[in-house]
Write a structure and sequence with these properties.
Layout (H helix, E strand, L loop, with lengths): L1 E7 L18 H16 L6 E4 L3 H14 L7 E2 L2 H4 L3 H8 L8 E6 L3 H9 L12 E6 L13 E6 L7
Parallel strand pairs: 1-4, 2-3, 2-4
Antiparallel strand pairs: 1-5, 5-6
C-alpha cells in the first residue's frame, strides 16, 4: 500500500507583501498546524518523505509538521510546481518518479489545487478544504507509478475546527 497525505497550508496573514509568495503563517495557523500534526502522530501516521511548495506559508506549515513527526527540515523537498499550479496528470507524472521505498508521502500546497487533487485521486468530493485540511489517501499498490485518479480511498480527513469544540 502507498499512502499520500495532502495538506493545505495553515492560516496566513492577509496579503500585505508585494508578492503572495512571501505571506507567513499567523499564530492561529501555527497552532492549527501543530494540532493536525499531533493528530497524525497520535494515529501513528508518520510520512517517509515531505514535499512542499516553496511559498513561505507552505514551507512553515511543513516545518511544523516535520518537527512534530520527527522529520528533518533540511530534507523537505521544495517543488515549484506546487506553487505555480498543476493538473492531476502533472502531479501523477511527478509522483511516479518517487522512490518506491517511501510508503507514506506528505504534500503541502495551496487551494484550489490541493482540494481538486484530493478529489481527483480519491473516492470523495472535497468541496470544503479549509486551511490546514489534511486528507490521507490510501492506494492499493506497491509502486508510486501505479497510482491513478479516482483509485484512492480516503482513510482520514482532518481540519482544525473539528478539534476546537
Amino acid at each position: 500500500m502507498k499512502r499520500l497525505i495532502l495538506v493545505r497550508h495553515a492560516k496566513t496573514e492577509h496579503q500585505n507583501y508585494d508578492r503572495d509568495f512571501d505571506r507567513k503563517l499567523i499564530s492561529r495557523g501555527k497552532n492549527d498546524a501543530a494540532i493536525i500534526a499531533e493528530q497524525l502522530k497520535n494515529k501513528n501516521i508518520i510520512p517517509d518523505y515531505f514535499i512542499c511548495s516553496p511559498a513561505k506559508r507552505a514551507k512553515q506549515t511543513a516545518e511544523i509538521f516535520a518537527e512534530t513527526l520527527g522529520y528533518q527540515n533540511e530534507n523537505i523537498d521544495e517543488q515549484q510546481f506546487l506553487y505555480d499550479g498543476y493538473t492531476t496528470s502533472g502531479f501523477l507524472n511527478f509522483n511516479s518518479m518517487l522512490d518506491n521505498s517511501y510508503k507514506t508521502v506528505i504534500v503541502f500546497a495551496h487551494n484550489p489545487d490541493i482540494a481538486l487533487l484530493a478529489t481527483a485521486l480519491s473516492d470523495e468530493d472535497f468541496y470544503h478544504f479549509p486551511t490546514t485540511a489534511t486528507a490521507v489517501i490510501d492506494f492499493d499498490t506497491d509502486k508510486w507509478e501505479r497510482i491513478n485518479a479516482r483509485e484512492g480511498k480516503v482513510s482520514l480527513f482532518l481540519y482544525p475546527r473539528i478539534f476546537k469544540q
